[in-house]
Amino acid sequence: MGKILGLDVGSKTVGVAISDGLGWTAQGLTTLQWQEPVFESVKSELATIIQDHEVEKVVIGLPKNMNGTIGPRGEASQEFAKFVENHFSLPAILWDERLTTMAAEKVLLEADISRKKRKKVIDKMAAVMILQGYLDSK
């Protein structure tokens, strides 16, 4: 069984998480730097991750406004999902991530991680929470 990739797509970084082989747990993998909306800037790194981990599905955080509408960031995630489907021939699932970045921040604050370190791992942590939320729903 292939693994599931979780992505938290920001305007400058993409947080990356991967499931275990059974699809039960999500682990943080890395944070990719990219120049939105230039998909080429992240394509080769994503291709390597997808190949190395035998990814069969990608879950992408879909930031919605609290009232459920989709703003510019949500539209950017939808564009990223289309890119993944077109370039890697993998199903891309958009997952409501309204509370994940805030939840990730809270976990890191409770762990007393310095602001500088938090900034480095927040995207990866959000990707883990997006993917774990998806896995738990199965």
UniProtKB/TrEMBL annotation:
Transmembrane portions of the chain: none
Coiled coil regions, renumbered to chain: none
Enzyme Commission number, as recorded: 3.1.-.-
Domain YqgF/RNase H-like: 2-104
GO biological process, one term: rRNA 5'-end processing
PANTHER family, per the entry: POLYNUCLEOTIDYL TRANSFERASE, RIBONUCLEASE H-LIKE SUPERFAMILY PROTEIN (PTHR33317)
Name under which the protein is recorded: Putative pre-16S rRNA nuclease
